[in-house]
Amino acid sequence: SPPAAAEPRHASPAAPRRLREKLRTAARMAGPPAHTAPGSRQQVQGGERRAEPATGDPPARETRAPFRFDYERFHRSLRHPVRGRRAGEDPETRSRRMKIKEMMKFAWDNYKQYALGKNELRPLTKNGHIGNMFGGLRGATVVDALDTLYIMELEEEFQEAKKWVEKSFDLNVNGEASLFEVNIRYVGGLLAAYYLTGEEVFKSKALELGEKLLPAFNTPTGIPRGVINLSSGMSWSWGWASAGSSILAEFGTLHLEFLHLSELSGNPVFAEKASTPQCLVMNIRKVLNRVEKPQGLYPNFLSPVTGNWVQHHVSIGGLGDSFYEYLIKSWLMSDKKDSEAKKMYDDALEAIEKHLVKKSAGGLTYIAEWRAGFLDHKMGHLACFSGGMIALGAEHAREERKQRYMDLAAEITNTCHESYERSDTKLGPEAFRFDAGTEAMATRLSERYYILRPEVVESYMYMWRLTHDPKYRQWGWEVVKALEKHCRVEAGFSGIRDVYTTTPTHDNMQQSFFLAETLKYLYLLFCEDDVLSLDDWVFNTEAHPLPINHTNFKA
Ligand code: DMJ
After folding, report:
1. CA-CA distances (angstroms) from residue 192 to 254, 346, 531, 545?
2. What's the pLDDT score for residue 289?
3. What is the pTM of this model?
4. Model confidence over 176-202: pLDDT tens digits?
5. Which residue range(s) make up the domain with 346?
6. CA 512 to ligand 1: nearest atom
């Protein structure tokens, strides 16, 4: 949702400055080997260096080696080539994949022609859109598209995007940004581009931007606020969020990227297990583990001041969604070592299954929302990612739950497919309901739109990879045809305002996540499993691939 009047404002310049100093120290440590000056000794502690008075002792060499991320070693540790080996595919699969590649090229070419450097393309008016989510940052579509272009072997287009990042991507901006959106799209996009290509520019931009996000964590609990000024470091809560609260899906969707920022910089500040007021992502879990959860469920609004829930609304769709996703993916990304994340995920899913999973009269399984004890029999398009997530976690569940969770994942994905199937355009609405005789259809005018969202095809992609049931490719191909028919316009792809009419009005917006996610997941659906293999990668919530930590890549 767009920020309304953002309040309350919150700023404490001192702590951010301390954090920035820590990071600068780490950046120095990441530089070439340094030796201590004669007559002095340096102490390395918790990422900080302090000079001690000269003792007259002989010059001591520094004991801690300067940090360098060993890209070559990381690359060698991958179990599959990132773009796969291209073995054993049938001509139809190949031609469908090529069609999706053509769609990506069309989306990119039009963005480049009419909106390069703006955040999104307006394909009807053929101009750019900037918006107010990214705090003055530009080029959201460039950064979101980088890894998709690379994976699809659109080499020339990838070079165009890279050149823009090198020459024009300015991080010295002064504006109010969504911590969540900047993290998942920009930090995630840059990290993925670095891991895929080894190009230093992506790493350095990711680290620089990550540093600018840190002051948002300067709250009494360490739960970050949702909005941050990228220049001053002032942060505050969204004006629309109850009583200055932070949003579960926002502060719960930082972990994957922040662990990689720590990994690449050698600086634990992004993820450190601290009990100071500046504690960062690991601390978020501590707060969540401390607070009592109604029936084991996680409400969507938490006070960053008290660490208590502010309102009892629970949803696996908007406001809650990617918090759950990042728990299971944190565990997978840690090479199954992060048992805290796994336990939190298992417990949360158990509570969701017990209290929110329902079956309609017509036999469709869905996940309802919960409002202080009452169920709202509605599923948002956003909640449709959960089929893929539950499938991803199923094989690692306790023995007696494995099949049950796999069935649940398939049933939810089927319900989301029904929400597409029951529309005239074969694209799904923003939200669909199961009440008053309605099943898997929007009942409100305001919920009939489709803005090129990825969640349904995301679940098709996971379900395909994990079951190889051909229906998922078939369903994905239906989406391709519907996008071509209803969303493709002269200069790009556009969202539509009503999925229940075959002559829909376009919303004149080519969302950056269409290039980052929708087209990437569709493409992967028609690839062999070794392209961005799930053995090597987890996808962040914007579909940017981040590597599973098979080994320690410190040089
Ligand atoms: C994307 O930015 C991400 O998938 C996010 O988690 C939810 N919303 C959009 C796509 O619908």
Report:
1. 15, 27, 14, 5
2. 97
3. 0.89
4. 999 999 999 999 999 999 999 999 999
5. 76-547
6. 2
